[in-house]
Amino acid sequence: MDTNKHELTRSEIPKSFFQDVRGILADARQRAYAAVNFIMVKAYWKIGRRIVKEEQGGKDRAEYGAYLIKELSRNLGEEFGRGFSVANLKNFRQFYMAFPDFEKGYALRSELTWTHYRLIMRLENEKVREWYIGEAATQRWSTRQLERNINSFYYERILSSGKQADVKASSARPIPDDFIKDPYVLEFLGIPEIADTNEQQIETAIINHLQRFLLELGKGFSFVGRQFRISTETSHFYIDLAFYNYLLKCFVLIDLKTTKLTHQDIGQMDMYVRMFDDLKRIEGDNPAIGIILCTSKDETIVHYSVLNESKQLFASKYMLYLPTEEELRRELERERRLIEERQQAGGQGDQDSE
After folding, report:
1. SS3 (DSSP) at 230
2. 6, exposed or middle or buried, with CB in 10 Å at 0-12, 13-18, 19+?
3. How far, in Å, CA of 106 to CA of 100, rounded?
């Protein structure tokens, strides 16, 4: 027996080798799952298209559509089992009607599951559907996160807070207005709306739910620090929360307030942003952005402060509960009206100066 030969043990084989092979298999399985899933999504769309065409052929009989889907469900159930209930077949039909050009490539994103599409197809506005598809795919939203964003009017909150005319899923030159929402919905913090809630409690809750807070902030944010210190030769100042956005290529400073916005709050944030740019900004960074999160805003104060003209300072409301659809609609409508009034006032001011 050759004593120089020995059996290789697992520990003698490089760990990186196992990791590489494991990575190859994991990637292949994920791709296979996504491919099969997307094949089924396309199949559901085709079924919906076929149902609509058949219904149109029998449109002279009002009850034909209901009878058709009921009989189709019964026959498919006998052969293919569960998954083809009347409700699901109606979903397939709605899927086709929401995306009639799906097969030609419209909004075709293989990253999304049938559940993603089932949530999005219920949105009435075509442009909003397209935006949610793009964001859900690129940001890899789970179906749970997508549902929350739809229910909390994620798209509309971004649209209402900025000066832009539209919200795009991606931009070659992103600007802060594309990222700042108003209001922010922080129901996941689990803090009741009581009068004695203080900034420290909210700050602690945000840290405890940091991942969900980052999702609410939006894309590109990473956490930097809590009570982030900036110091001069004579004084120390502490910023509640500091983040960095790699898409905007700038730091984002957040100051939490449990009261109505004041001039002092605005002046303090303005100082923080200026100091941060002087002391912490490095080559390649864009100017820092400051966001004051408050419970309410006096629009007169906003209008006659640096917030009205600054591209670096923002004031947004936050809500500690998930509001009803009507409450959110009223809030968004109020924000739109105030933005339009400010824009009109600015336009009039330009004319007067000519």
Report:
1. strand
2. exposed
3. 9
Backbone angles phi, psi at 68, to 5 degrees: -60, -50
For residue 57 the two structure tokens come to 């052929």
State the span(s) of the chain assigned CATH 3.40.1350.10.
Answer: 163-328
306 CB-near residues (< 8 Å, 6+ apart):
266, 270, 313
Q: Are 290 and 266 in contact (CB under 8 A)?
A: no
- Alpha-carbon distance of 207 to 211, in angstroms, equals 9
CA distances from residue 222 to 25, 135, 174, 312, 319 in whole angstroms, order as listed: 30, 18, 17, 18, 22
User: What does the pLDDT look like over 7-40, one tens digit per residue?
Assistant: 555 556 677 877 888 888 888 887 777 778 888 8
Predicted structure pTM score:
0.71
Q: Which pLDDT does position 301 carry in this prediction?
A: 73
Average pLDDT score over the chain: 81
| pLDDT of res. 4 | 52
95 closest CA partner among 82, 78, 108: 108
What is the CATH T-level fold of the domain 163-328, as seen in this structure? Trna Endonuclease; Chain: A, domain 1 (3.40.1350)
CB atoms closer than 10 angstroms to residue 287: 16
Q: Sheet containing 221-231: give its strands across.
A: 184-185, 313-319, 289-294, 250-256, 236-245, 221-231
Q: How many CB atoms lie within 10 A of CB 311?
A: 11
**pLDDT score, position 165:** 42
Q: pLDDT, tens digit, for every residue of 79-102?
A: 887 788 889 999 999 999 998 887
Q: Which residue has the tokens 């307030």?
A: 257
Containing H/E element for 321?
Answer: none
